[in-house]
Amino acid sequence: MAQRKLSSLELALLGLIAQAPRSGYELCRIFETSPMMHYSASPGAIYPALKRLDRRGLLLGQVERSDALRPVRTYRISDTGRDAIVSWVSLPIKRDDLIWRSDELMLRFAFMGQHVDLEATSRFLTELVEVIDAYVSELEAHHRGMPEGGSPHGRLALEQGLDSYRSMAAWARRALGRLGNVAN
Amino acid sequence: MAQRKLSSLELALLGLIAQAPRSGYELCRIFETSPMMHYSASPGAIYPALKRLDRRGLLLGQVERSDALRPVRTYRISDTGRDAIVSWVSLPIKRDDLIWRSDELMLRFAFMGQHVDLEATSRFLTELVEVIDAYVSELEAHHRGMPEGGSPHGRLALEQGLDSYRSMAAWARRALGRLGNVAN
DNA sequence: AATTTCATGTAACCAGTTACATGATTCA
DNA sequence: TGAATCATGTAACTGGTTACATGAAATT
């Protein structure tokens, strides 16, 4: 129990393999070409990560067509793997997740559709809005406390951060609306 | 020459010390409390990073009040360090910088004010807008190519990414405008 | 007197990067 | 025939995380 936390790369791999069985090479291609994958990916990271997930029992790797001269190792998700995904995407959202791991939050959202119901998704989005709003208030307070003189660069940089969080909150509200329309 | 690239943490430290001489502890406090610092910071990372920068000659560390019982090691920027900052902030912006190191881009912007003139800053912002616009087009193409059916999560996640890039471009245009007003 | 804060660090561990190695298969 | 692509990996290096160690000074 209370296994060591998975890295974002491992979570991304787990989520992708839960969608469909895949080989290491296919996963490499996905990371190379898919635009939403800001989760880094060199073969030197992917193959070891797959091995780790396999050793832990979250994935089942098996060599297919071992008779052929070029065997392919295909990974499929295991039951424990699926459980791990479900509890991962259901985790409450903390301030620190937003600040240090917002990529992982979006990854959670992207994979959520296949593993939990619409209600869980709207809980996620509602929580996200709350956490962002709280953090935006913090940043705004800091912004107000900033010295006026000197070059505006620091102030502007902070404003960029504020803008990006505000846009994320706006997105979440919009998404919430769209899901509501689907549900009703 | 052609030294190994500095990590974002090292660049952040360099920039902060260029503003004013500081001790390791002060830097730790800044990272703990300052909101714009998404550049991580535990003492276990900071102290070794300062040593590396010192060894490379980008910083000058010297123990102050060595007579006192609790000495403080204060770092100041060196001439080579200042040069390194200037060439760092003057680097052209690549697509990959936007995708993988956008935090570092904002760090560059924040420190730019003290090291280069307004024209360099507007060049930076202009380039940034160009790079973002190009990448947004890429993402939009991908968005159009996405399958319609199934759960909307993947599509929505991509839209979040699009929004955040668009908001960054809008910020850059606004900043450009504000700098223009200052300059004229 | 006890706790918190100041102040500097080290050590074990781990994951990711870069670069390389290997060889089959397909395509021009 | 030679190049690109398919497919799987390893090894060295590096930098960050966590956790710990040490002890003075200030605060309660």
Summarize the structure in words:
- The structure is a homodimer of 184-residue chains.
- Chain A has eight helices and three strands.
- Chain A is mainly alpha-helical and 184 residues long.
- In chain A, strands 1-3-2 form a three-stranded antiparallel beta sheet.
- The two termini of chain A are 39 Å apart.
- Chain A binds a DNA duplex (28 and 28 nucleotides) through α2 and α3.
Largest sheet of chain A: 3 strands, antiparallel
Shape of chain A: elongated
Model regions low in confidence, pLDDT < 50 over at least 5 residues of chain A: none
Number of strands of chain A: 3
Overall mean confidence score, pLDDT of chain A:
91
Q: Quote the distance from N terminus to C terminus of chain A.
A: 39 Å
- SSE run of chain A: HEHHEEHHHHH
Strand order of the largest sheet of chain A: 1-3-2
Helix/strand/pairing class of chain A, anyone?
Answer: mainly alpha
Pair of chains with the largest interface and how many residues each contributes: A-B, 40 and 40 residues
